[in-house]
Structure to design on (667 residues):
């Protein structure tokens, strides 16, 4: 049974074109870009081409793109680097709904190095208060790190306005744009962001490749120290096949962005509307207007997310949940809690995230089958029978 | 994804005895929507009110919570109330083959509901599990009594295990130090040690030597495990002066718990009249 994959904010299938572009770099053009012979030169050339493709997606210069191993490395490189060059600045600002890559790293600096940390709250719809951002900026603020769109709810933060506020105070701004790259247009000529992290496997490249946009003039010491690769900004032999794949994936993402915002969005809307009519006591989490076109996070009251996911799995449907049992901890998602979603809803939250590979038939299957699953679990629940 | 046994999957996908017995002889209820899992167990007994003839459950929770509830009802159907009272959370886990460590609290929930139901029958209590004793973990409302119990019944030695078995410590983490001390205390009390018989009158030198040995054998290992240490500073008559180091010295509970624990050990192995004091800085 071919899975109905609706968990594209977790990871995506690699595009066929991407695999095809990568293949020669494993067994034929396997040279090290730093080497002096033609084989190395080919790899170097391919890396340069990929850098241009990634730069095109962000409308920036190729020399502002740094390849890393993943989004988490891009985030860590940014936070560690910025704090290292400004040791006298002891304050950090982030939001309460950040991905763990940023959240845990910022908390690490608070706990292990005594930094002051402001975690900006969000409202019930998951939106940030810009006035609160402005008032929390201090003279010794070293860095503001705020995500572009939330991985769990898909809520998009107003990056342009955030950047304007932060830059008017002369503070460095880092953004985790892992969920938006390839889905929304990111124009670094218009967005005064200093550092922006993106990840390959969220846009149909393989896992294990990421990039960091570093605005020209931003001082950033290498996080991985060693050789002089990546113009001395990141040591370690370049992962040429994956870099090539990532470049290709960015090119495809640009071509498909229109589709993402029309047909993928239409399918998402259909799925959401279908589930809200098909199931009682179901609620959408997150602002519906400022939201990624592919994401719907829906809470089904009185039942628990893991049970829903496992029953969906028996039908081949893949999604994810913000419930405690699936978060690896005992508490439900920090994002939903920050929004004040009551526990009764947080435990039963399911995130569906679509991609350009999602078909209407697949969406129809979920709309048709999920209500029975919800009913079945509610009939077993001491709270579901009213 | 969790590694569930076939048996867990089977009891989740095809749960036995779902529902609520009308006019049940007794019922037990545990958990809440906020906690993320809850179980309501209803039982019907034979005419003599001795044997369980039917059991049904309603559960809100993850797959292993549903499977544990289903297993519980299968285990106790046909049992006398007296034997059912002896069912442990481990029996539920065993029935299912195995539960992932992090999901053991689901089996504990089953045992709690069963106990509440039996108490409901025998004493007329409401059947809703009430908190007994001091609450240690405010995030999940877990009491000292419950923590001690899961430690003893499942031979737990680490805080993480306690979290897996009863959730305590799995939220803000603020109670982990306290759980660590409960572990220390419970396990120190439980450890069957070969006691050298207490001697009669001791010379000062003998006494110091014995205190030192007891510290090395009975006390220090548990403190070191906790990131601390202890040193014998002086013995004046029956006063034993010690210095606590590392994690123990900054531990907010040190004045009470630590001293009580050390003193109890020294009294047990050396002399009944010893009084432990912490060295003043
Ligand atoms: S009080 Fe126990 S985890 Fe918060």
């Amino acid at each position: 049974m071919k899975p109905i994959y609706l968990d594209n904010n977790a990871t995506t299938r690699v595009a066929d074109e991407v695999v095809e572009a990568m293949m020669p770099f494993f067994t034929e053009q396997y040279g090290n870009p730093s080497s002096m012979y033609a084989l190395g030169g080919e790899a170097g050339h391919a890396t340069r081409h990929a850098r241009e493709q990634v730069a095109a997606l962000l409308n920036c210069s190729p020399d502002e793109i740094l390849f890393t191993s993943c989004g988490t490395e891009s985030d860590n490189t940014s936070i560690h680097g910025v704090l290292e060059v400004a040791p006298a600045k002891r304050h950090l600002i982030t939001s309460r709904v950040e991905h763990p890559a940023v959240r845990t790293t910022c908390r690490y600096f608070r706990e292990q190095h005594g930094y002051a940390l402001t975690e900006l709250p969000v409202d019930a719809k998951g939106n940030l208060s810009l006035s609160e951002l402005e008032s929390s900026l201090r003279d010794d603020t070293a860095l503001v790190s705020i995500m572009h769109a939330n991985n769990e709810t898909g809520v998009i933060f107003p990056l342009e306005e955030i950047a304007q506020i932060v830059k008017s105070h002369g503070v460095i701004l880092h953004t985790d744009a892992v969920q938006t790259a390839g889905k929304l247009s990111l124009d670094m000529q218009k967005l005064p962001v200093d550092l922006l992290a993106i990840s390959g496997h969220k846009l149909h490249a393989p896992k294990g490749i990421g990039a960091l946009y570093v605005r020209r003039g931003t001082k950033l010491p290498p996080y991985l120290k060693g050789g002089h690769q990546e113009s001395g900004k990141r040591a370690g032999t370049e992962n040429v096949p994956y870099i090539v794949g990532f470049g290709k994936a960015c090119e495809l993402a640009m071509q498909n962005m229109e589709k993402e915002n029309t047909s993928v969005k239409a399918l998402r809307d259909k799925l959401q509307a279908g589930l809200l009519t098909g199931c009682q006591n179901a609620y959408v989490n997150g602002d519906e207007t400022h939201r990624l076109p592919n994401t719907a996070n829906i809470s089904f009251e009185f039942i628990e997310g893991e049970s829903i996911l496992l029953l969906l799995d028996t039908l081949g449907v893949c999604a994810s949940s913000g419930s405690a049992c699936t978060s690896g901890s005992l508490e439900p998602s920090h994002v939903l809690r920050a929004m004040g979603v009551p526990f009764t809803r947080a435990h039963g939250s399911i995130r569906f995230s679509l991609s350009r590979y999602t078909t209407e038939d697949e969406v129809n299957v979920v709309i048709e089958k999920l209500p029975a699953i919800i009913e079945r679990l509610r009939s077993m629940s001491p709270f579901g029978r009213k | 994804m969790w590694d569930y046994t076939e048996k867990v999957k089977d009891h989740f996908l095809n749960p036995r005895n779902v529902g609520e017995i009308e006019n049940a002889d007794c019922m037990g209820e545990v958990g809440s929507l906020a906690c993320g899992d809850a179980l309501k167990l209803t039982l019907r007994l034979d005419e003599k009110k001795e044997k369980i003839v039917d059991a049904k459950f309603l559960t809100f929770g993850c797959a292993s919570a549903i499977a544990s509830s289903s297993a519980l009802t299968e285990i106790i159907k046909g049992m006398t109330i007296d034997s059912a009272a002896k069912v442990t959370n481990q029996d539920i886990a065993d029935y299912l083959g195995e539960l992932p460590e992090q999901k053991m609290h689901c089996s504990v929930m089953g045992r709690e509901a069963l106990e509440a139901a039996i108490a409901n029958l025998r004493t007329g209590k409401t059947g809703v599990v009430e908190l007994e004793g001091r609450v240690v973990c405010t995030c999940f409302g877990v009491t000292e009594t419950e923590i001690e119990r899961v430690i003893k019944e499942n031979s737990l030695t680490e805080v993480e295990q306690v979290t897996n078995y009863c959730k305590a410590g799995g939220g803000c983490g603020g109670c982990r130090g306290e759980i660590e001390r409960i572990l220390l205390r419970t396990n120190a009390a439980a450890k069957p040690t070969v006691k050298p018989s207490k001697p009669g009158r001791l010379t000062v030198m003998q006494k110091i030597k014995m205190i030192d040995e007891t510290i090395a054998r009975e006390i220090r290992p548990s403190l070191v495990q906790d990131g601390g240490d202890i040193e014998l500073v002086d013995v004046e008559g029956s006063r034993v002066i010690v210095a606590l180091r590392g994690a123990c010295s900054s531990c907010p509970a040190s004045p009470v718990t630590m001293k009580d624990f050390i003193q109890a050990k020294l009294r047990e192995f050396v002399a009944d009249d010893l009084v432990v004091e912490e060295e003043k800085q």
Q: What stands out?
A: The two ends of chain A are 37 Å apart (CA to CA). Chain A has a mean pLDDT of 95. The first strand of chain A starts at residue 4 and ends at 5.
